[in-house]
Design a protein that fits this description.
About 50% of the residues lie in helices and about 10% in strands. By secondary structure, it is an alpha/beta fold. The protein folds into three domains: about 15-125 and about 290-380, P-loop containing nucleotide triphosphate hydrolases (Rossmann fold); about 135-285, no CATH class; about 385-490, Helicase, Ruva Protein, domain 3. It binds adenosine-5'-triphosphate (ATP) and magnesium ion.
């Protein structure tokens, strides 16, 4: 049992093992600050967790397994930024991310639905992510290949037959088209002519003047994604089966279909096809699996709903299935091999962030093994009036900025006075207190209400280049509703 945990010089050969490309905890918090107001503790915890995963991956093998993953439980009321923090974290880390509601696994019909599906979803997400990255990389090359294919159709190279009606139409426009006389030295002349015509045609194609021209192209059948077939089923096994079916299907050569399209449409379809051909799907899958294993993040929402409150009282049925879900979760969170249609994934380094309001149940109502796998608890605070003011104005995607941008598209500048924003924040806090605390979500309902007429009236009734909203307008529009508890229940 005794082990020596001192770090030997061999393990630390040249200082830090983690390369500079990764964000430090401080930088992570700084990035999160751009979108989320307050919640310092939660930001710090997720930043540490993310960095610790990286640190753990760089620890020598025999020690690595001893180090617990830094899974987190975020505790806090609704609408205070729990999901938002996790989502932003995943974006920052460029990590595959899925969000699941723990309670869905206890629903009727879902009982026994294997919890592993969350990992399969994560893999899907990762594959899509990597595929779109790789597509971007080859897009330019694909576009060039498509040009070649379009040229081949418009002006077949010497020796190939093509669209005769198009050759005619090209001739009409004064382009020379090589005639096919099989004479020895005429061939080279012909090639030269053909090359010139292609060059002219290419220029014309690039100028965009031919986009509406009809051509006939041959493309593989299906939806351009390789004609994948989807099989839906209530059970994980069915999804697996779907995977196997798809594998079988993809072995069958796809029928090629002839279609008449405009050049613009053809270009799109051909581009998809070329991108598909240029991407090495095996490499995509390999990288996607690696991404999931090394950097995947699973956000388990409403984890409190699968915790059984010790007070009891209710029937035993649901509790059994709740605990069942916890037991199903355990191996995945602990680290196990999950088979997906793309291959087996190890979940050892996947970061799990659970969240819940924990009004009734407490984290200590979770089965001890699961508690042990979520060693970090962090509480998020209720948002105050002052937080609301900041949320309205400061984040990169702040609501006020969103509305301003929306209305700007109509050529109208929307302006809020500082007092107006303070008033909105005050009303939000008040309604949260008197009706129900839904956190920052309240700001959405209040702003939609406040701006409804404006949104409706532009551009017909409300003309002019500027709209200014001040605090008296806010009070006038919302004051009465906010003061009346019954009214605000329905409206705000
Ligand atoms: N601290 C905050 N800073 C900025 N925006 C916030 C903050 N808290 C919440 N929001 C905004 O409010 C909305 C809801 O937040 P979020 O989804 O994170 O709630 P939640 O804490 O996960 O709630 P629930 O427990 O209901 O899932 C989001 O649009 C988010 O942008
Ligand atoms: Mg949430």
């Amino acid at each position: 049992m005794e082990q020596d945990y001192t770090v030997t010089p061999q393990e630390q050969p040249h200082g830090a093992l983690i390369d500079k490309a990764h964000l430090t905890p401080g930088q992570i918090v700084e990035e999160l600050d751009k979108y989320i107001i307050g919640q310092k503790d939660a930001k710090k915890s997720v930043a540490i967790a993310l960095r610790n995963r990286l640190r753990r991956q760089n620890v020598s093998d025999e020690l690595r397994d001893e180090i617990m993953p830094n899974n987190i439980i975020m505790i806090g009321p609704t609408g205070v930024g729990k999901t938002e923090i996790a989502r932003r974290l995943a974006k920052l880390a460029k990590a595959p991310f899925v969000k699941v509601e723990a309670s869905k696994f206890t629903e009727v019909g879902y009982v026994g639905r294997d919890v592993e599906s969350m990992i399969r979803d994560l893999v899907e997400q990762s594959v899509a992510m990597v595929r779109s990255e790789k597509s971007e990389e080859v897009r330019e090359k694909a576009a060039l290949l498509v040009e070649e294919r379009l040229l081949d159709i418009l002006l077949p190279p010497v020796g190939m037959s093509g669209n005769s009606d198009l050759e005619e139409s090209v001739e009409e426009e004064g382009l020379e088209v090589a005639s096919k006389v099989p004479e020895e030295d005429e061939q080279s002349l012909e090639r030269e002519l053909n090359r010139k015509s292609r060059q002219k045609m290419l220029e014309r194609l690039r100028s965009g003047r031919m986009e509406d021209r009809q051509i006939e192209i041959e493309i593989s059948g299906g939806d351009g994604q390789g004609g994948m077939m989807q099989i839906f089923g209530p059970l994980g096994q069915m999804e697996e089966l779907g995977g196997i079916m798809q594998d079988l299907m993809s072995g069958i050569p796809k029928k090629r279909k002839k279609r008449r399209l405009t050049i613009a449409e053809a270009r799109k379809l051909l581009e998809q096809e070329e991108v598909q051909k240029l991407i090495d799907m095996d490499a995509v899958v390999k990288e996607a699996l690696r991404k999931v294993e090394e950097s995947g993040i699973v956000f388990i929402d409403e984890i409190d709903k699968i915790a059984a409150p010790t007070t009891g009282g209710g029937g035993k049925g649901p509790d059994v299935s709740r605990e069942g879900v916890q037991r199903d979760l355990l191996p995945i969170v602990e680290g196990s091999n999950v088979s997906t249609k793309y291959g087996v994934v190890k979940t050892d380094h996947v970061l799990f962030v659970a969240s819940g309001a924990f009004h009734v149940a407490k984290p200590s109502d979770l089965i001890p093994e699961l508690q042990g796998r979520f060693p970090i608890r962090v509480e998020l605070k209720s948002l105050t009036e002052d937080d609301f003011y900041k949320i309205l104005t400061q984040p990169r995607n702040a609501l006020i900025k969103q509305y301003r941008a929306l209305i700007m598209t109509e050529g109208v500048e929307l302006e809020f006075t500082d007092e107006a924003i303070r008033e909105i924040a005050r009303i939000a806090a008040k309604v949260n207190e008197s009706v129900e605390n839904i956190g920052a979500r309240r700001l959405h309902t209040i702003l939609t209400n406040l701006l409804e007429e404006l949104m409706f009236g532009i551009p017909e009734q409300i003309t002019g280049k500027r709209v200014k909203i001040d605090d008296s307008m806010v009070r006038e529009k919302l004051g009465q509703v906010a003061a009346d508890r019954d009214l605000s229940q329905y409206i705000l």
